[in-house]
Amino acid sequence: MPDFTKEVKAFAPATVANVGCGFDVLGFAIHGLGDTVTAVLSDKPGVRITRITGDGGRLPVETEKNTAGLAVQALLNKTGKMDETGIELSIEKKMPLGSGLGSSAASSVAAVVAVNALLGEPFSKNELLPFAVEGELAASGTAHADNVAAALFGGFILVKNHQPPDVISLHTPDKLHCTLIHPGIEIQTKNSRMILKKQVSLEKAVTQWGNVGALIAGLYTEDYDLIGRSLHDEIIEPVRSLLIPGFDRMKAAAMDAGALGCSISGSGPSVFALSTSKSEAETIGRKMGDVLDEIGLEFDIHISKINTQGAAVEVIRNV
Ligand code: HSE
Questions:
Q1: Distance CA 292, CA 315 (A)
Q2: Strand 177-183 to strand 299-305: parallel, antiparallel, or no bridges (unpaired)?
Q3: Using the 8-state DSSP alphabet, how is residue 268 labeled?
Q4: Which of 49, 97, 128, 147 is placed for a possible disulfide with 102 were both Cys, Cβ 3.0 to 4.6 Å?
């Protein structure tokens, strides 16, 4: 018998996709930013979004247009009980939209985690991944799983295959700190994917997969120098960085301030830098901020260790 008095609230973190060299295959989660989704059962079958806060009224509440709504619909379809189950979702955005920090993924992942708990955990965490990818498909036009996998599992992840998703959780060295600078402009993932070249030279491909392999080796051996030497993107960054005012100067400032490496977070405009201490991460943030101050562009800075927990249920209560 469904429990109509139960309410489940889940949180999913913001994420940095690509991690420089790993376009569409690498990602990690951070602390502090993300989305909360609250799910309750309803006696009216179907998925409805009753409220969205923190989005400035910009996200669609129609289930078929909302990433969280679509992800939960995919989940319900799989249960085979779509016709008899009613779900109401309330979404709290606690992170900026169009920022390159995995905003759509955070909504989809928090939603499927909340609904799974509401229904008595019919699916494992691994099994939830394809549902969240459905939401991403709607948001960006491609079923890339790097943000959703990092948000769901936490830590560093490698997406070996997108559909069906095959994701490997990687080792996360404890000292790593991430500095994020979010300039006050928006870039839609759909648009920043459209400008990418569809072909790469063999020479660039060789450099890139050398860096991806070495970065993963660096994570496992906690070799911070190797992580830094591998954080180079020969293919995507040269194109997308043109959309980010002051990118080259911010990156140079981060490297001068001791960053291991620095690149675009996801599809931008946020830029991330990795370092090995909080004080270094803060100095890097200040130096990058100085560049945007000079340009006259507003920004937010966020400092975080890597979030190894990923999405989780925060509250289950009777209403
Ligand atoms: N890997 C995706 C991209 C992430 O770079 O387009 C989008 O946040």
A1: 39
A2: antiparallel
A3: S
A4: 147
- Summarize pLDDT for 222-259 with one digit per residue, the tens: 999 999 999 999 999 999 999 999 999 999 999 999 99
Contact 235 CB / ligand 1 (< 6 Å): no
Catalytic residue among 179, 189, 276, 283: 189
Q: 164 near 130, Cβ under 8 Å?
A: yes
The position carrying tokens 């997969």 is 209
- The alpha carbon of residue 169 and the mean position of all alpha carbons in its chain are separated, in whole angstroms, by 15
Mean pLDDT of 104-117: 97
Q: Which domains does the chain have, with CATH numbers?
A: 6-171+307-318 (3.30.230.10), 177-305 (3.30.70.890)
Query: Is any ligand 1 atom within 6 A of the Cβ of residue 97?
Result: no
pLDDT tens for residues 51-94?
999 988 899 999 999 999 999 999 999 998 888 899 999 999 99
Q: How far is ligand 1, taken at its centre, from the CA of residue 41, in Å?
A: 33
| Residue 173: cis peptide before it, omega within 30 degrees of 0 | no
Task: Please report, for residues 112, 232, 313, the alpha-carbon distance to residue 49 in angstroms, rounded to integers and kept in the order given.
Answer: 13, 41, 19
Spatial strand order of the sheet with 261-264 comes to 261-264, 271-275, 177-183, 299-305
Give 94's contacts (C-beta < 8 A, 6+ positions apart). 33, 34, 35, 36, 54
Q: What confidence score (pLDDT) does residue 299 get?
A: 97
Spatial contact of 196 and 6, defined as CB atoms under 8 Å apart: no
